[in-house]
Write a structure and sequence with these properties.
Elements lengths: L5 H8 L14 E3 L15 E5 L12 E7 L2 E10 L3 H16 L3 E4 L11 E13 L3 E12 L2 E13 L5 H37 L1
Parallel strand pairs: 1-4, 2-5, 2-6, 3-6
Antiparallel strand pairs: 3-4, 6-7, 7-8
């Protein structure tokens, strides 16, 4: 979010109660595409359990994370996510991969946790922030396990440019980076799960 000067950003993030106008004192809440929509049916495809996305405590809040300088990161006070970031990312992850891979049934409640024959997708988000140079960055590790066996794993990161100043453009860029990353993940999952099914057929 490239403000005219760093003082403008500081003023936007840390408003003074004594001199703020009524509009400046409003709280603004932001959503990522898909979180507030009704969750669709998991479908009737091959089941894959999706565990809740994990992320560091400083990320798993309603505050939007913004890097204000080379060595400083700030959490916003009056511009927030509509829910905790972990909840938003988990829900949007499930919706996106269901759309991209309709031959599978992805869901948090699919398969009993620990069931040996059911693949499980686990994701750890390591970065999800805006940066003072006008970009945003998202990054996560993922893995598919079945029982106690690691089937496949990888890391995906994405940097996107913001189209302008302000939180609307920041959230739009984060949403674009996140969805693009999930599309890359979907390609990896298609290969991984397809290979797993082939190995199962060969053992039969």
């Amino acid at each position: 979010m490239k403000f005219p000067a760093i003082l403008s950003l500081t003023a936007a993030l840390v408003l003074s109660a004594g001199c703020s106008s009524s509009s400046e004192s409003l709280y603004h809440y932001y959503d990522l595409d898909g979180f507030t929509r009704q969750t669709v049916d998991a479908g009737s495809g091959k089941p894959v359990r999706v565990n809740n996305v994990t992320l560091p405590d400083y990320l798993d809040t309603q505050s939007i994370l913004f890097q204000t300088g080379p060595n400083e990161v700030t959490q916003t006070n009056r511009n927030k996510w509509i829910a905790s970031l972990g909840s938003i990312l988990t829900n949007s992850l499930v919706l996106r991969i269901r759309k991209n891979l309709p031959e599978y049934s992805f869901g948090e409640n699919i398969c009993v946790q620990g069931r040996d024959d059911c693949p499980v997708l686990q994701m750890n988000v390591r970065d999800f922030r805006g940066i003072y140079d006008g970009t945003v960055h998202t990054e996560f590790d993922w893995q598919i396990i079945r029982g106690r066996t690691l089937i496949c794993h990888g890391s995906i990161s994405r940097t996107e440019n913001q189209n302008g100043d302000g939180y609307d453009n920041l959230v739009e860029a984060l949403n674009k980076a996140w969805k693009s990353s999930l599309d890359d993940l979907s390609d990896n999952l298609r290969t991984c799960l397809g290979r797993l099914e082939k190995e199962d057929r060969e053992r039969e």
